[in-house]
């Protein structure tokens, strides 16, 4: 399965890269990297934290979403796609992308477990 970002942005002409809101760098096969660049290469931690909690045999997933601004500041780095040192292409990721993807995650976790998966892709217990 190919993601919309792989087809539409990495191998297409779209400059939108909302999945970058979940953390940078994003590394793809064939040497493609999406990262934040300013005076140097930057990292952007994911706004979603996932932690297993509990005891063996009774583990649960604890998740926390930070709904802060994406790469804030007056000298914020620029998100770019680059392939093995080739020319960089600017991409567009927004604070709204952070909030939208975090809200989708929260909404999915609020559903009963078996509703997380489409019927034809549910794992067997």
Helix content estimate: 10-25%
Number of DSSP-assigned strands: 7
Order of helices and strands: HEEEEEEEH
* Overall pLDDT confidence: 86
How many angstroms does the end-to-end distance come to? 24 Å
Form type:
globular
Low-confidence runs of at least 5 consecutive residues: none
Instruction: Characterize the biggest β-sheet.
Output: 5 strands, antiparallel
The helix count comes to 2
Derived structural class: alpha+beta
Q: What is the CA-atom radius of gyration, in angstroms?
A: 17 Å
- How many domains make up the 3D coordinates? 1
Strand content: 25-35%
Describe the structure in your own words.
The two termini are 24 Å apart. This protein has helices spanning 4-10, 95-110, and strands spanning 26-27, 32-37, 41-42, 48-55, 58-65, 78-83, 89-90. It has one domain (4-111). The chain contains two helices and seven strands. Strands 1, 2, 3, 6 and 7 form a five-stranded antiparallel sheet that branches. The chain has a two-stranded antiparallel sheet with strand order 4-5. The protein is 18% helix and 27% strand. Strand 6 and strand 7 (89-90) form a beta hairpin. It is an alpha+beta fold and 125 residues long.
Structure described in brief:
Helices cover 18% and strands 27% of the residues. By secondary structure, it is α+β, with helices and mostly antiparallel strands.
Topology:
Layout: H1 4-10, E1 26-27, E2 32-37, E3 41-42, E4 48-55, E5 58-65, E6 78-83, E7 89-90, H2 95-110
Antiparallel strand pairs: 1-2, 2-3, 2-6, 4-5, 6-7
